[in-house]
């Protein structure tokens, strides 16, 4: 009846009686000497209640106080022995399945299976008896990992990350044995060990006998052997359809093709695939088929170099396999456009130089016209501040406004370059520039988006570059009014820059691959590579390595994989990004998100059955009731005017 | 001792009252005032202890031979007024910030001094005393005041036989002045009944202290009466009101009982000056004896 009060120490309320008794005993009578004693006696007879009334009230007060105090003392002394003391303590292993299928969503409960299992683990923790302990076990890279010992009321902690590796259930026994016993566990009676598996699709398990203390938890048929211990299984979620990718392949186009490549994908379940160019929503393509081929026609000035593959499906329960980012290789440089100022004759040296440096490309040359778009793979801007759409820009004495501003022309004498900044991430080395000179040099105004590479003592920054989605090289010399194209330094610089540009066109690694597959990296030369997971793209929140170091062989080849979690990876060499690729997750059994419904068990039965209470157990409460009734009687007597 | 009863200024004022008394006496020689007592002339009145300044011729040597103590033999002359000062020495009289006992002694001493000036005989006693002290006009003022001062509180008792016999001796020339707080009223009322039987005029000076009428008590109080049993009481406004009403009723009943015996009744607070009371009594003619 008042068991709730025990935990919260509400029974200390009864100590109010102590205050009452102390007050009763501690009250002080002031002494006063008077005359007219017989009159005082007469007054006292008139104003004081009769002795029997005072006696009645005193008796009631003493009854109430003593009952309350006795009750408090009995509670404090633990007159009610806890039934749990007679039963062995329980060590419960709560095994939470954190396989990918547990990320399946239940539309009925508006939660994932993982969230429901985590909530259930909290329930179980709160249902333990005070002397019991629990240990939450989850899977990391296919192996069971036990957490700390928890007692009733402890937090279950955050849900474990998704583990894409296949769970090695046979290792559970070793895990349980390694855990040992919690500290302060009483040696006798011996602790009962049991397992509570929270999953969506239970594995095939042998039957086991229920431990003596836990017979009420589940019917005998639900008890299975898990890691050598008796255990029960509960499942969470609901059956549902899962649509997702089971295959995605990108084949680059052969040289000379206008396409960038061909994307082939295969789906499971019912749903629509959707390919979405990053930053170009108007290029969205939908494919209403379980497998499709998508020729990729990507514009040359595409700022973003990838597209996202999505699966759209009504009531799709698992989203882990619904998204793949396809990092596209750089578009090759096949066309070159040279823009010159209006009214000027073409510069044959510039055209010949480009033909020598990039043989076999289609070169177009024209005057810059205001408002007319310029589109090509590489645009050479000879003192023309246009806004072309191109993968690469070679700017002489002018820049697109978004990249920066240049100062008016001035003379730049030879031999006055003071520094040549080397930027490894650019992929090329700046040659010696001391012979360069020009009557027209356009220094770069500070504050632009380019990185300065070389500074002339008199003219300022005359060489700058940037890389990334679009490669830019700024040369401050005018091709006509300088010796840039005559002395070796100029063409050398152009040659190195173009080589770096072209090196990024090579296929280092296939852009799409299943995470469980081993693939080959072709670096062309021996080098140390690094593979890093992009944390912002992909499903995330999973166990597994996020970066790898790869050392190629002498022939420049290396093998990578299998990877431990899906997502977008970057291939780096000395901090410079060489390529990107996506590792996607395919596991037919997990993608099926199978669900075997099993009714939930009575977690309250984890607490040992209470023995039949005797009058001793009820005595403190009886005393409290006596006190309450005494108070009520006192109040009623006062209300009826019987006592004052 | 006299200083404990009166200050010099008070004594000076009392002496002026004595002069007023002497003027009254000038109208007639001692003994010429018609006595209320019929019968013999000079006759024995009472004994009183000898004090310095007394006339040695009045010493009763027979008593000295028996008791080895000097006592004066006092005689009463016809027409001489006897002022019998009776003090109720009950324990309840010893109460109050302005002590009732002291106030009673002061007022009786003042009246005694005035009476001495009129050559009247002054008899002094407590209710329970077995002897009555007598002071005549020839006696010293000092001796009288010392005798009054020496009186102390005793336990409550009925009037003694000596006091009754003093009333009976020359009843009609006797004026009884009793100072009491009437808290043990039986003694006083029986005394007044005796006085009435013997034709003695009586005046009761009823004293009270302010604390008795307006007690300043509150809360849980253990009351210890000077006479009676202790009791515990939670004192609040209704209790005080009931007490005040009871006291008022009691005092009113006492006054009625006193007046029923034909005695005069003067109520006096212990904190008031005695002079106005004396003046009032003089004006009332109580000390005029057989006039």
If you had to describe this structure to a student in words, what would you say it looks like?
- The complex is a heterodimer of chains A (644) and B (291).
- Chain A has five domains: 3-80 and 616-639, no CATH class; 84-239, Rossmann fold (3-Layer(aba) Sandwich); 244-330, Immunoglobulin-like (Sandwich); 335-503, Rossmann fold; 506-586, Immunoglobulin-like (Sandwich), CATH 2.60.40.
- Helix content of chain A is 20%, strand content 30%.
- The longest helix of chain A has 26 residues, at 51-76.
- In chain A, 37% of the residues are buried.
- Chain B has 291 residues and is α/β, with parallel strands linked by helices.
- Chain B has a single domain, classed as 3-Layer(aba) Sandwich (Rossmann fold).
- Helix content of chain B is 41%, strand content 21%.
- Chain B has a six-stranded mixed β-sheet with strand order 5-4-3-6-7-10, sandwiched between helices.
- In chain B, helix 7 links the parallel strand 6 (174-180) and strand 7 (201-208).
- In chain B, helix 2 (8-26) runs parallel beside helix 4, helix 4 (100-117) packs antiparallel against helix 5 and helix 4 (100-117) packs across helix 10.
- Mean pLDDT of chain B is 81; it is low at 25-41.
- The chains are: A alpha/beta (644), B alpha/beta (291).
- The A-B interface holds A 27-44, 46-48 and B 92, 95, 181, 183, 209, 211-212, 215, 217, 219-229, 231-233, 238-239, 242-243, 246-247, 250.
Question: What are the low-pLDDT stretches of chain B, counting only 5+ consecutive residues below 50?
Answer: 25-41
CATH level 1 name of the largest domain in chain A: Alpha Beta
| Topology-level CATH name of the largest domain in chain A | Rossmann fold
- Number of DSSP helical runs of chain B: 10
CATH superfamily of chain B: von Willebrand factor, type A domain
Alpha plus pi helix count of chain A: 10
N- to C-terminal separation of chain A?
A: 34 Å
Which structural category do the helix and sheet elements of chain A fall into?
Answer: alpha/beta
> Helical content of chain B, roughly?
40-55%
Taken together, the total number of domains of chain A comes to 5
Mean pLDDT of chain B: 81
Please identify the structural class of chain B as seen in this structure.
Answer: alpha/beta
Described by strand count, sense and barrel closure, the largest sheet of chain B is: 6 strands, mixed
Q: Kindly report the CATH topology of chain B.
A: Rossmann fold
Q: Cα-atom Rg of chain B, whole angstroms?
A: 20 Å
